[in-house]
Amino acid sequence: MLLTKTPVAAATARRHARSFFEPTDDDLDLYRDISFKLKAQPPSSLFRYLQPAGRHLMQLGDEEPGVWAGLLRRVG
Questions:
Q1: Comparing C-alpha atoms, which of 62, 60, 56 is closest to residue 26?
Q2: DSSP per residue over the chain, as a string?
Q3: Which of 23, 24, 25, 47 has its CA nearest to residue 35?
Q4: Which of 4, 17, 47, 63 is the S-S candidate for 57 at Cβ 3.0 to 4.6 Å?
Q5: How many CA atoms lie within 13 A of 54 on its CB side?
Q6: pLDDT > 70 fraction of the chain, expressed in percent and rounded
Q7: Residue-wise over 29-47: b if at least 16 C-beta within 10 A, else e?
Q8: 2-21 as b/e, with b when 16 or more CB fall inside 10 Å?
């Protein structure tokens, strides 16, 4: 008995799942907008005050330093 209408090839295809530790497009847009307004790179602590839009950036900043450095590489 077939329980789904999804073709087998589509159901078994590998999907790229974004890691929690990667910034989303919305994160990058928010970071860019704040950077332009401040005319400087904002610290991760600033995003605590931009809830809920800044929540993921704040959480990335709370991780090990390499995670925030990865965000800055993406922004660059």
A1: 56
A2: -----S-HHHHHS---PPPTTSPPHHHHHHHHHHHHHHTSPPPGGGGGGSTTTTHHHHHHHHS-HHHHHHHHHHH-
A3: 47
A4: 47
A5: 17
A6: 76
A7: ebbeebeeeeeeebebeeb
A8: eeeeeeeeeeeeeeeeeeee
How many whole angstroms from its chain centre is CA 29?
10
Count how many residues are written for the chain: 76
Confidence of residue 36 (pLDDT cuts 50, 70, 90): very high
pTM for this prediction = 0.70
Mean of all residue pLDDT scores within the chain: 82
